[in-house]
Design goal:
The chain is built from 17 helices and twelve strands. It is α/β, with parallel strands linked by helices.
Length: 433
């Protein structure tokens, strides 16, 4: 195919046929279209957008580039959750075992970090021995056996999305509603699920900068998913401040375990319970979201989801004893340094975008496709808006590989915070679509 003419047509705002899009996806997946041409096409889509029919065609072509999971008939509903990504967003690691304990089957196909946002796969791979590379047959078997599996795209499942996802990360083409919609739904449709809850972030550190753009994405995803037979709802959550008090792969795993042990930050717990409540309603398990959240809270507090996480770790090759040992350690990075408050008062701002950029530059994220992630680095003990601080009190800790990197990070991190004399007015954290 003459892919150059397709790039030019989309660059000029033209509409592409479903057949053309399908051929382009197949050509890229099998190596016939080089990275540099696909990068140009992605930029054209990012700038010009896609019509609903084009987005549908792209989604289905990416889904059909690999296998679709085939689960046996089972009374347990097949469900999943997906987030558009945020700084400190470790909800999936808490939610997946919780959903399994609530009687769902959860074949969660996740992604790696994009831009300043952390990826669930990168976080899980900070657990000793944990593999996220599961064949479709193994994934189905594990879900049937223990109720949950957490893996990534393989050569068999949505391989076109896997290749496009990595390319978008390093070409500035992440914040595109058609591309985000197609990427998310190609994986979710390949899972064979019946219900999906979306956690769509908006704010200064989100791909969706404001709530109206987030609503457009929510409607794009829920509308197309419903057309494809998947009951879908969406939550809109703010991403001006990091979620929880830790950002960085291993530090976020530790905080997720804290949540399963019922001692996590309120915002992390709230999003987890809200997602579970939505799925309970979508599948007819509860009458409304309030009763769904209550049921989810009772299950989370029972301790069973924490045990389910260990079962998940063991099923995917992880060293449960080694995992437990690491959780007892305060840190795994060679250097840990505190950021002290310059005065007393109340935190009025904790800038998520800057926190994410610092974590990425410490080695916790990617600047290029082949960047190697350091799971030990990051930031924790973050003071959040509304927190009272004393002069010289801790506002955050930096986990770094060297003293020099810690010093640079601390200097940058200071600009992420503001302290006022009065507590700030707090906006609603979770908004409706």
């Amino acid at each position: 195919m003459n892919f150059l003419s397709i790039i030019e047509k989309k660059r000029d705002g033209g509409e592409l046929s479903a057949e053309t899009i399908s051929e382009a996806v197949a050509g890229f997946a099998d190596g016939g279209i080089p990275d540099y041409q696909m990068a140009a096409f992605l930029m054209a889509v990012c700038c010009r957008g896609m019509l609903a029919d084009e987005t549908r065609a792209l989604t289905l072509a990416m889904r059909d580039s690999g296998d679709v999971l085939d689960f046996p008939v089972d009374e347990r509903p097949l469900v999943d959750k997906h987030s558009t990504g945020g700084v400190g967003d470790k909800v999936s690691i808490v939610l997946a075992p919780l959903l399994a304990c609530l009687g769902f089957r959860v074949p969660m196909i996740s992604g790696r970090g994009l831009g300043i946002t952390g990826g669930t796969l990168d976080k899980l791979e900070s657990i000793p021995g944990f593999t996220t590379q599961l064949s479709p047959a193994r994934l189905v078997e594990q879900v049937q056996s223990i109720g949950v599996a957490m893996g990534g795209q393989t050569a068999e499942m949505a391989p076109a999305d896997k290749a496009l996802y990595a390319l978008r990360d390093v070409t500035g083409t992440v914040p595109s509603i058609p591309l985000i919609t197609a990427s998310i739904l190609s994986k979710k449709l390949a899972e064979g699920i019946g219900a999906l809850v979306m956690d769509i972030k908006f704010g200064r550190a989100a791909f969706m900068p404001d709530i109206e753009t987030a609503r457009k994405l929510a409607r794009s995803i829920t509308g197309l998913a419903s057309e494809c037979g998947v009951k879908t709802t969406a939550l809109l959550t703010r991403m001006d401040t990091p979620l929880g008090r830790a950002a960085g792969n291993w530090l976020e795993v530790k905080e997720a375990v804290d949540c399963l042990d019922c001692c996590s930050p309120d915002d992390l717990r709230a999003v987890t319970l809200a997602c579970a409540g939505e799925l309970l309603v979508l599948t007819g398990q509860t009458a409304d979201t309030s009763s769904g959240r209550l049921r989810a809270m009772e299950e989370l507090d029972s301790g069973r989801p924490r045990a389910k996480l260990d079962e998940l770790v063991a099923a995917q090759g992880g060293d449960v004893a080694g995992f437990g040992g690491l959780l007892q350690r305060d840190h795994t990075a060679p250097v840990v340094r505190e950021l002290a408050a310059g005065g007393a008062g109340f935190i009025t701002r904790c800038e998520a975008r800057l926190v994410g950029e610092i974590v990425r530059d410490l080695g916790g994220g990617r600047l290029m496709k082949d960047s190697v992630i350091d799971s030990s680095v990051g930031i924790d003990q973050l003071a959040k808006p509304g927190d009272a601080v004393e002069r010289r009190g801790t506002m955050a800790r930096v986990h770094a590989r060297t003293e020099a990197e810690a010093k640079v990070a601390l200097a940058r991190l200071e600009a992420a915070f503001e302290i006022g004399e009065e507590p700030p007015e707090m906006s609603a954290f979770i908004e409706s679509v």
